Amino acid sequence: MPHEPSSMRPHAAAGAALPRIAVCGIHIESSTFTPYVSTAADFDVRRGDAVLERHPFLAAGSPLREAAAWHGVLHAGALPGGPLDRADFEAWCAEILEGLAALVAGSDGEPPLDALWFDIHGAMSVRGMDDAEGALITAIREVIGEDVLVGTSMDLHGNVSPALFAGCDQLTCYRTAPHVDVAETRERAVRSLLDALAAAPHGLPAPKPHRALVHVPILLPGEMTSTRVEPAASLYARIPELAAREGVTDVSYWIGFAWADESRCQAAVVAFGDDREAVDATALELATAIWEARHDFVFVAPTGTFEECLDTAIASPARPFWISDSGDNPGAGGADDTTGCLAALASRPEIRTGEVTALLVSIVDPATAGRAAELGVGRRGDVVVGGRIDARDPGPVPLRIEVEALDDSPATGVAAVLRVLAPAGGESPSEPRPTGLRLVVTSRRAQFSTEAMFARLGLTMTGADVVVVKMGYLEPDQHAAAADWMMALTPGGVDQDLVRLGHRRITRPMLPFDAEIPAPSAADVLR
Asked: Does the pLDDT value for residue 497 go beyond 70?
């Protein structure tokens, strides 16, 4: 059972006013190499108590909710995508700053704002900006002042820029990839704030911790740094022991975000606590361990071109055999509509005859999803699928299809299961016949990572011989369903071949763009 934060006890016992904590943030992971532009329409935007209701540990009546006076300002969160539209970003920033200014001003007899939980991802890009989160926290500091304690929780695929580090007193991030500790990380950030506030002398601001940041110039995709495999497994396994040291409160290791071309994109270690020497030494120790493992990172699964992966899948006795279309993974910011894998599946003889069944999940295509809804379940028609956002070769694919299932949900919009018929669009046999290929199209960018999402469309994760997903590493439900799997190194906005993408603005030297990088030293510790 989670420990009771010390901050809950003094306030309850002494009857003192509860600390006032604001919550705000904009949460998205943005590839600058995808043609997709993220807008407000992609986001779930919450205000007031709805901001708190995102988190079960802050549910009404919960111990942590009762430990402070919480003020939800604004939180906007979205599936990873392209850079955020500048006007939408600025509108949300203005609303956040206005809301915080009102809290700081307060009303007669209202105590000052004590803390802020900055709930972000850490890899947001905004069109025309280089460090959006750093700019936002800098603007926030101008409103709330330096006395307010600021804590942030982040994805380990975020970036810690000097500006973000300067604006936050406590920084922590996930310790697992795939991320099974999201709620745990956010709760850890909240508990750290409450504990620090409880330690403050009555009527005085909470003391600021000592902090240390060490950048390590390594930029790797999450698929080479999964905590399922070495060396990331052992590096992250060290963190609980490091964070338990005398004088250290928390230690975190950010992989960084590989698919943005910004100077802040690189690995980072942050430690904070009440003993400067211990904090500095701990951050440098973990950064050195990462540097020592710099050449040991490998992909989490066997890889190849899509054609090589498909050859292996068809020949394998393992069923289902899963293949990740990693270059167009919407969970990292891919457009979700490249069609190279679809064209290859549709032309494969074993799939065309139905000897091998295949399922491609999913391609975002509002026009095709809408056409399927017009046709209705059991009806047939011709469609042109994909390539409307990221039109790289082969572009839109014409298909003759039969609609097998329809659904409509906030996560996917209109979604349809399409059975591909042979011959494909353009020919008109009297009796088009079903192939072994099924395709899911959606009207919103989506990622079918859970068994429940498949079930909404009457599908299972194990019902086809070959399952192709627009993913990088497999999420837990997918990993459990796959008898075997490979990751296809496909082109797209989140191409695993980083050198092929053409970064221009990152810090150099940087692995894997350069053969070697210097070892971290005490001179690299930023406080």
From this structure: yes
Name every residue whose Cβ is closer than 8 Å to that of residue 251 and which is 6 or more positions away in sequence: 239, 242, 243, 269, 270, 271, 282, 283, 286
The 3-state DSSP class for residue 150 equals strand
Q: In this structure, is the dihedral angle defined by the CA atoms of residues 298, 299, 305 and 309, taken in order, positive or negative?
A: positive
Beta bridge partners of 210: 273
Beta bridge partners of 398: 384
* Rg of the chain, C-alpha, whole Å: 25
Looking at the predicted structure, is the pLDDT value of residue 6 above 50?
A: no
164: its two tokens: 């973000």
Q: Count Cβ atoms within 10 A of the Cβ of residue 395 and give its class: 0-12 exposed, 13-18 middle, 19 or more buried.
A: middle
* Mean pLDDT across the chain: 94
Strand ranges of the sheet holding 250-254, from the earlier edge strand across to the other edge: 210-216, 267-273, 250-254
DSSP state of 227: T
* Contacts of the segment 280-283: beta carbons below 8 A, 24+ positions apart: 280/210, 280/212, 280/522, 280/525, 280/527, 282/212, 282/242, 282/245, 282/248, 282/251, 283/212, 283/213, 283/214, 283/251, 283/525
The answer on pLDDT for 209 being more than 90 is yes
Q: Which residues, 6+ apart, have CB-to-CB distance to 34 below 8 Å?
A: 81, 82, 259, 333, 334, 335, 389, 390, 492, 493, 494
Both tokens assigned to 102: 């009102």
User: Domain segments of the chain: what residues?
Assistant: 1-207, 209-299+503-527, 303-495
pLDDT in tens, 11-20: 333 456 899 9
Percent of the chain topping pLDDT 90: 91
Q: Do the domains at 1-207 and 209-299+503-527 have one common CATH topology? A: no
How many CB atoms are located within 10 Å of the residue 247 CB?
Answer: 16
Looking at the domain that runs over 209-299+503-527, which CATH code has it been given?
3.30.70
SS3 524: helix
Nearest CA-CA partner of 266 in 512, 25, 525, 31:
512
Strand segments, DSSP code E, in 57-120 are 69-78, 115-119
Distance CA 160, CA 468 (A): 34
Span 473-495, pLDDT tens digits: 999 999 999 999 999 999 999 99
Task: Render pLDDT for 336-389 as a digit per residue (tens, 0 to 9).
Answer: 999 999 999 999 999 999 999 999 999 999 999 999 999 999 999 999 999 999
pLDDT value, residue 327: 98
Structure tokens at 136: 């936002």
pLDDT confidence of 8, banded at 50, 70, 90? very low
For the domain 1-207, what is the CATH code? 3.40.50.2300
